[in-house]
Amino acid sequence: MTSTLKLTRRKFSITAGASMLAGFNLAHAQNDKIILGQSAPFTGPAAQLGIQFYQGAKVYFDQVNGEGGVNKRLIEIRNLDDGYEPTRCAENTRKLIADDVFALFGYIGTPTSVVALPMAIKEKVPFIAPFTGAMALREPFNKYAFHVRASYNDETGLIVKQLTALGLKKIAVFYQNDAYGKAGLDGVMLALSAQNLKPVAQATVERNTVDVAKAVTTLVAAGPDAVVQIGAYKACAAFIREARKAGYGGTFYNVSFVGTQALADELGKEGAGVVVSQVMPSPYNAARPIVREFVDAVKAAGKDAKVNFSSMEGYVAARVLVDGLKRGGAKMSRDSLISGLEAIGTQSFGGFSISFSPTDHVASHFVELSMLTGDGRIRT
Questions:
Q1: In this structure, are residues 365 and 149 in contact, taking their beta carbons and an 8 Å threshold?
Q2: According to DSSP H, which parts of the chain are helical?
Q3: Does residue 219 register a pLDDT over 50?
Q4: Is 194 helix (H, G, I), strand (E, B) or coil?
Q5: Model pLDDT for residues 283-309, shown as the tens digit of each residue
Q6: CA dist., res. 25 & res. 89, Å (int)
Q7: Inter-axis angle of helices 179-193 and 152-165, to 10 degrees?
Q8: Please, are residues 151 and 206 in contact by the beta-carbon 8 Å criterion?
């Protein structure tokens, strides 16, 4: 379950590219397919987030297709690689919308989703389960956006609550210098403000880089009890290694978007004690039926997917989408998908509560903390 993801970027690119070329110009209106569009990083420093989410979603969609699909229509994900860069994501989204995909699904990241969502809204294309917790994508409410995961405010609120409960009030923030990092920073500031506290220091890293030297100098000098990190796994791992080399002995807390398994793989033994907030139930704890279902599905698939938090989020997101499709009725349309998702109400998906309504498109506020053990495992 915890072994390093074996799928190479080359192999993924060839596989995804072949699937796209196999019929990219077919419109979603065809009778035998429901085509979803996804722009995500499949190369670059955030690649594992896109790869793992996609693999988890595909495990579920393949199950559904193996049983005849939804109303005899098979589900296909069309992938385009954006490298976690907003300009590339915008171009990908234009292509996907022009190709008349049924819905946009599983976009990875805040800076990319922030540019894509307005495009989806303009063209009235549902935007389902982005891998981001930014409040800017949730507020104000929009009928075309559906969020399966909890927000960064939910995650950072729990992190700050945990730290202050332990008596650790000197909190610094290391964040990515873009919409994602600032969304996480806002969450930390909000949670600290509720306790009449402020960060003792702040420092940034540029997206898709690991240039952390200046940030390490700034934050270590402030002597914080803990550093809350709002970044992707490559930069956060680099910061942890360099901060410890500089003599920092405090604790590190990350939000879920860091990519837990990818962070653990990057750090190895140096990951011991690093905390990550999670918005999905632990895939390593079989207490919930949804976890047992997911683990069994990955094993049965026997392909590239591995059991981890990111792939589980893809699996859960796919399960929710299919439920919405089924509830929408036999005459499928984008409007019927929206109505079907809203009709879910409050339901238990194998012990994981999901709640949608016509006035609320944020399905979950579930958050819990996990810790890396340093031997590749993740404890919750």
A1: no
A2: 9-21, 47-66, 86-98, 110-123, 152-165, 179-193, 213-222, 233-245, 260-267, 289-301, 309-327, 334-342
A3: yes
A4: coil
A5: 999 999 999 999 999 999 988 899 999
A6: 19
A7: 40
A8: no
135-158: per-residue pLDDT in tens? Answer: 999 999 999 999 999 999 999 999
Q: Are 357 and 365 in contact (CB under 8 A)?
A: no
C-alpha distance from residue 360 to each of 216, 277, 320, 374 (Å) = 40, 23, 15, 39
Average pLDDT over residues 62-69: 97
3-class DSSP state of 40: strand
pLDDT at 29 over 50: no
Distance CA 266, CA 269 (A): 9
Quote the pTM value: 0.91
Mean pLDDT for the stretch of residues 183-191: 98
- Do the beta carbons of residue 172 and residue 243 sit within 8 Å? no
Mean pLDDT score of the chain, rounded to an integer? 93
β-bridge pairing 33-40 and 103-105:
parallel
Quote the CA–CA distance of 74 and 77 in Å, as a whole number: 10
List, edge to edge, every strand of the sheet that includes 74-81: 74-81, 33-40, 103-105, 127-128, 145-146
Coil, strand, or helix at residue 355?
strand
Q: Tokens in use for 42?
A: 């499949």
- Classify 41 as helix, strand or coil: coil
Q: Which helix (H) or strand (E) holds 323?
A: helix 309-327
Tokens 């009778």 found at: 31
- CA dist 189 and 153 (Å) reads 10
Q: Are 73 and 31 in contact (CB under 8 A)?
A: yes
Give the pLDDT confidence score for residue 12 in this predicted structure: 47
What H or E segment, with its residue span, contains residue 379?
A: strand 378-379
Torsion from C-alpha of 354, 345, 339, 102, nearest 10 degrees: 10
Q: Domains of the chain, with CATH numbers?
A: 9-150+286-356 (3.40.50.2300), 152-278 (3.40.50.2300)
- The answer to whether the CB of 309 falls within 8 A of the CB of 280 is yes
Q: Is 195 helix (H, G, I), strand (E, B) or coil?
A: coil
What is the residue type of 117? L
Q: Provide the token pair at 19.
A: 């699937």
